[in-house]
Amino acid sequence: MHSRCLRAFVVATAAILTVNVAAATAHADPVDLVYPGMEIRQDTNRCTLAFVDVGTRTAFSAGHCHGSGLVTDKAGNVIGHQTSFQDNIPNGATIATDHVITDWETIALLPDIPLSPVLPGGRVLVVDPAVGPVAGQRVCHFGVVTGESCGTVESVNNGWFTMANGVVSQKGDSGGPVYVLTDDGRAVIVGMFNSTWGQYPAAVSWQATDQQIRADVFNAASGSAPPLAPPA
């Protein structure tokens, strides 16, 4: 994720966050670590954390996981506060492959919580704008219910893609990272788990989500576009 973009997002919402994060801190118990693939709770919603940007202390998950504000771990300890989300998933409607699916949320993490970019399996989860979902590509998905499962990209659609040949999911896996394994032991995120369309698990594209978040930042900055830089 573009670090300057996310810093602009944090600045744009600072007035709200100052109050809300302070309130969250007052009720927070110690949290050992925040990392991609961990379980998060928002009101009655149970989901999976997709990505942790350590530099900006921002985390990401599925938009349909959003709640009233506070975000906790599975034990109920506060880890941060929801700052923005988008979710246009149709309820019960038939989805065409050209339908644009938007499903993301950003979470401002509390300042005193230790962060890690490492998945539960031990791989560092990174961003590479040059890597996106491609039909036939081998990918893995991590969800708090099903753990890690791997398969291939079945089809790439308008900002989202489906998976097959071994990728599985259950309720609670929403927001979990979908990634490509690299030869050097890392994992490159290419999507966030969204839902199951027909027989295929589906995820929103990380690249499409990045563009949507940058557009949201642009609007929040009252028409002033933040400078962009490639991620570390």
Keywords:
232 residues, Thrombin, subunit H, disordered N terminus, disordered C terminus, alpha+beta, 2 domains
Number of helical runs? 3
For the largest beta-sheet, the strand count, sense and barrel status come to: 7 strands, antiparallel
What are the secondary-structure elements, in order, as H or E? HHEEEEEEEEEEEEEEH
Structural class: alpha+beta
Alpha-carbon Rg, integer: 17 Å
Distance between the termini: 9 Å
User: Which strand order do you get reading across the main beta sheet?
Assistant: 2-1-5-6-7-4-3
- The overall pLDDT average reads 82
CATH superfamily of the largest domain: Trypsin-like serine proteases
Strand content bin: 25-35%
Unreliable stretches covering 5 or more consecutive residues? 1-28, 221-232
The CATH topology assignment of the largest domain is: Thrombin, subunit H
How many strands? 14
Helical content class: 10-25%
**Overall shape:** globular
CATH class wording of the largest domain: Mainly Beta
In total, the number of domains comes to 2
Going by CATH, the architecture of the largest domain would be: Beta Barrel
Structure description:
- This protein is an alpha+beta fold and 232 residues long.
- It folds into two domains: 3-116 and 208-220, Trypsin-like serine proteases (Thrombin, subunit H); 125-204, Thrombin, subunit H (Beta Barrel).
- 16% of the residues lie in helices and 35% in strands.
- The chain has helices at residues 3-12, 14-26, 206-220, and strands spanning 39-42, 45-48, 51-53, 58-61, 70-73, 78-87, 103-109, 125-126, 138-143, 147-156, 160-164, 177-181, 187-197, 200-205.
- The strands form two sheets. It has a seven-stranded antiparallel sheet with strand order 2-1-5-6-7-4-3. The chain has a six-stranded antiparallel barrel with strand order 9-10-11-14-13-12.
- Helix 1 (3-12) packs across helix 3.
- The longest helix has 15 residues, at 206-220.
- Mean pLDDT is 82; it is low at 1-28 and 221-232.
